[in-house]
């Protein structure tokens, strides 16, 4: 660690995962001095994205006692045997030769277009650091096949999977869901409060196909989901429609590992200091000043507050970790579903899988080269479910059989791993704020709520991630503000300023 590093900080954050990076950025933005450390040589921890070589190396590592990534394994399903059709032939060596073209997420997420994270990115102006692609299809399994669920009004009336009567029933039902909670909400829905959402669907006399569309892909709920929650989930889906594409979802270009780095960039812009490959050897609490004393690389640092991700010594000493999320990551030379779902080489498809009685679920995210996550001609399948055991392959077996036993997927590479969660807090570090590991959720709501909660505890009177100004809005001390007036600039400079503004627009949505 550099000798000229300051010795006093308002906040030291250990770990550069999504939640920790949100807290670091929020603190730095409101003028707090922040030191952000990570023992890894990369940003993001279990929220990160890896090249092909780096992923294999990461999965081969023997986990530390408190590591949140464990039970990892991977298999190549091809050596020199050619797979694919036409010119698209892939071997292990040819895949590894394009290692840097991959961006493989440990913890992939899909964003609701009007969801908490998108609103936070826009509000804080962090969106200028990121690019997104609209999800192309929200899918479901019907009669053993993967089919696209109509989302928008035009999709409903253009789809060939529903009859004219079913289209009208679906539109009527979605309109009723959208009106729920308003004054015009009819009395028919009030009698279902406290009952299940499935009962409400049955009372609407919708067909089995429409009920499957709503339960599997729109409300994304199960048979025990209560009526109020089912309505809220449906409204959340409908409220994000039409923002940036036909579906209500977005996916980050180049993988979800870009998002923690976006918050780290903002933290650094406002003075946050970053040190990767830096281990904290010891932490103690000064009883006189009530400050933390952190020992790292032979230097003692003082901090008013410390925030740590789980799994980072020494603050994680004595903390028990248990399986939380079971993950499967697959690379294939062919997509899932028919040609209609993968026009032009495919994009981003989302599929929710269920067991026979609808009590267990898993999310599948299919990515093509248009996301910047893999080379052209290959596809990434991210499969995620709640962990039941220390064996992620066993936890996911029910869902992998639905995908690969009856569909012609040409799998080249498969991997399984577990993301663990802490079960309690170390008594020795009771004054340190721990962030939560990734939870099983589609979006980032729980992670953002965790960041807001911890930030509120640290800096109760400060605003969480207020808007950062654009470069052209910044006025240096002593500078004439009128000099930044676009209309006072020569024509050639006005053109350059216009080009700069175009490259820093609020959201870069690629369809």
What does this 3D model show about the protein?
The C terminus is likely disordered. The protein is 28% helix and 23% strand. Among the domains are: 155 residues, Guanine Nucleotide Dissociation Inhibitor, domain 2 (2-Layer Sandwich); 87 residues, Guanine Nucleotide Dissociation Inhibitor, domain 1, CATH 1.10.405; 40 residues, no CATH class. The longest helix has 16 residues. The protein has 14 helices and 21 strands. It is globular, with a radius of gyration of 25 Å. It has 511 residues and is of the alpha/beta class. The strands form 4 sheets. An 8-stranded mixed sheet has the order 4-19-15-18-17-16-8-9, sandwiched between helices.
What is shown here, in short?
The chain has 511 residues and is α/β, with parallel strands linked by helices. It contains 14 helices and 21 strands. The strands form four sheets. The chain has an eight-stranded mixed β-sheet, sandwiched between helices. Strands 1, 2, 11, 12, 13, 14 and 20 form a seven-stranded mixed β-sheet that branches.
């Amino acid at each position: 660690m550099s000798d000229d590093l300051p010795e006093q900080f308002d906040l030291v954050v250990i770990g550069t995962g999504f939640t920790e990076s949100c807290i670091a950025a929020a603190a730095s933005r409101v003028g707090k001095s922040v030191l952000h450390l990570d023992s890894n040589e990369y940003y993001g921890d279990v929220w990160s994205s890896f090249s092909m070589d780096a992923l294999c190396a990461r999965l081969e590592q023997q986990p530390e006692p408190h590591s949140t990534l464990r039970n990892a394994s991977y298999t190549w399903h091809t050596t020199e045997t050619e797979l694919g059709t036409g010119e698209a032939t892939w071997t292990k060596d040819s895949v590894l030769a394009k290692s840097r073209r991959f961006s493989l997420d440990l913890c992939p997420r899909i964003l609701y277009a009007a969801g908490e994270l998108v609103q936070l990115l826009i509000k804080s102006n962090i969106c200028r650091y990121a690019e997104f692609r609209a999800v192309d299809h929200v899918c479901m399994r019907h009669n053993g096949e993967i089919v696209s669920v109509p989302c928008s009004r035009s999709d409903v009336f253009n789809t060939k999977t529903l009859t004219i009567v079913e289209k009208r029933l679906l539109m009527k039902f979605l309109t009723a869901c959208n009106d729920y909670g308003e004054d015009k909400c009819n009395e028919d829905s009030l009698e279902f409060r406290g009952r299940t959402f499935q009962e409400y669907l049955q009372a609407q006399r919708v067909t089995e196909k429409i009920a499957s569309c709503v339960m599997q892909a729109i409300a994304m709920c199960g048979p025990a989901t209560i009526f109020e929650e089912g309505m809220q989930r449906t409204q959340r889906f409908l409220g994000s429609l039409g923002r940036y594409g036909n579906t209500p979802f977005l996916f980050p270009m180049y993988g979800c590992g870009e998002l923690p780095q976006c918050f780290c960039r903002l933290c650094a812009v406002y003075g946050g200091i970053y040190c990767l490959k830096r281990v904290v050897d010891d932490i103690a609490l000064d009883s006189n000043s009530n400050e933390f004393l952190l020992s790292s690389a032979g230097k003692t640092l003082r901090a008013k507050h410390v925030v740590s991700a789980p799994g980072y010594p020494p603050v994680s000493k004595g903390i028990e970790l248990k399986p939380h999320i079971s993950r499967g990551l697959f690379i294939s030379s062919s997509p899932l579903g028919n040609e209609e779902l993968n026009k032009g080489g495919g994009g981003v498809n989302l599929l929710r899988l269920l067991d026979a009685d609808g009590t267990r679920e898993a999310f599948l995210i299919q990515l093509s080269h248009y996301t910047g996550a893999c080379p052209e001609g290959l596809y990434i399948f991210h499969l995620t479910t709640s962990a039941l055991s220390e064996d992620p392959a066993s936890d996911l077996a029910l869902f992998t059989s639905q995908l690969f036993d009856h569909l012609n997927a040409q799998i080249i590479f498969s991997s399984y791993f577990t993301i663990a969660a802490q079960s309690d807090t170390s008594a020795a570090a009771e004054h340190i704020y721990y962030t939560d590991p990734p939870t099983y959720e589609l979006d980032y709501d729980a992670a953002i709520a965790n960041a807001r909660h911890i930030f509120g505890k640290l800096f109760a009177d400060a605003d969480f991630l207020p808007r950062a100004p654009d470069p052209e809005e910044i006025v240096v001390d002593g500078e004439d503000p009128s000099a930044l007036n676009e209309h006072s600039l020569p024509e050639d400079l006005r053109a350059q300023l216009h080009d700069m503004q175009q490259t820093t627009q609020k959201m870069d949505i690629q369809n």
